[in-house]
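notes to self, project folder thing:

trying the whole complex as one job this time. last attempt i did each chain seperately and stitching them together was a nightmare. two parts in total, labels are on each line so i dont mix them up again. if this works i'll redo the older ones the same way
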Amino acid sequence: MATIIKSYEPTFWDKLYFPALLKGLMVTIKHFFRQKVTIQYPDERHIPPDGYRGLHRLNKYPDERIKCVACEMCAAACPSNCISIIPGPSPWDDGKERYPVRFDINLLRCIYCGFCEMACPEGAIELTEIYDFSNYSRDDLVIDKDGLLGVYELTKKQNYYTKKSHSPASLPFKTERT
Amino acid sequence: MGIVQGDQMILNIGPQHPSTHGVLRLEVRTDGEIVSEIKPHLGYLHRCFEKHSENVTYEQVIPFTDRCDYLASMNSNFGYVVAMEELMEIKVPERVDYIRIIMGELNRIASHLLALGVYGLDIGAFTPFLYMFRDRERILDMFELTCGARLLYNYMWVGGVSHDLPKDFEKICIGFLDYFEPQIKEYNNLLTYNKIFIERTADVGVIPADVAVSYGVTGPNLRGSGVKWDVRKDEPYSIYDRFEFDIPVGEGQFGTLGDCFDRYWVRMLEISQSVKILRQALKDIPDGNVHQALPKKIRPPKGSVYRRTESPRGDLGYYIVSDGTPVPYRVKMRSPAFTALSCLDEVSRGWMISDVIAILGSLDIVLGEIDR
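result (full assembly):
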């Protein structure tokens, strides 16, 4: 143990601790009249900026064709192996041979790193600004192609949180308790 | 812990204890209130970072480095990418260097704010914690604007950064710094010069310089003991040699050199130094493309590299061995918080249980990084 040199000896006035308390309280009272920084969460929500890395979506062309060509680049880039794709021949005559028959993302495994959207050559998979998608069962958090396309419909026009009707119930997958 | 004799008692602090800063269990042998031995039990947060890295590609390691030191993810990324660039001999564009330093220093401020705020909370001062979190929130907002995440950024990539800065970032950042600098004075009024705080921290848990060096303690904990060692100055990486800043060291202001107060105070001074670096970096930042040097496929040549960087907790080192494949052969991380925790036993012997909390808080450990 080191030798301790007492260079600071509190005076009698210090030992009362009352002035120290008052001094701190002065600062706190000043803050009492300042603008509030907190938000009332379930009523008001934080609006994330563009490029926020939240819930995924699968993009579509304006004529309802899915952009994804099931190349599985996103699945290869994923550090947590949360994407599983089953490819099939494309039903549309647009020069693209493949399209995803199944496209599942396990949201519990996902670490929201954004590598999938960087890896995608078609700009098909994207992370959206939705952050509150908690759920009651683990099975409901593995979202499929319909869910991902539904998220696209939900977020393509404007930020999800600037809409009036946003709520977890409006998400395109099951969020109620069974 | 051996045989318990007489008035001795074994006391478990943690794993679910608010003052252990995560899931750490301390097995404390006490004699009344006096602590005679501490045995930290680690591993509750072990996620096999090093073994995991051997099974994913080089770029996929970056999100896992985030999760080691989750309070300073930018600095964890920074260390890894600097090491990788040294191994692959990549020269990144100037703008990337500047962006990395801006992000690293902002994250240093955020991490120190959390450390100081939570330290106050450990000691019994609740208000500074709220004020520091309020300001930390603004830094997180800036990170959110830049890379889309608030805590685990995955921002720095080998050869560049994932996104360029948003177009009015400089204005926002300068605005934050102008707001933030006067706040430091307020923290000092509220916490630093509070007599109760000083009496709880001054002269408590002294780490003499020789003990600190022999345990490998680095960062603010080492500088609190009066040793002037900072990787940013002594072994400059990236472009830290271009900036003017001082390395604050402990002076034993209210007691012995190397006590809890000194470690606290060094962090507080470091925040001002980071602000100084940020102002210089924001002034000189050049234009350019941030993706220019990104390699298509990361396949470093055979060989190994050890690169240390200064994270908010100290000397963060990465040892990377490559066998020429896209998957690392070995990634070793040298964690500064681990070495800081290792000296806890020696430092806290002879102090009371309440002082152990003060000492542990002043070491600013992050269990994510200790257990990895």
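what i see at first glance: The longest helix of chain B spans residues 94-123.
need to look closer tmrw
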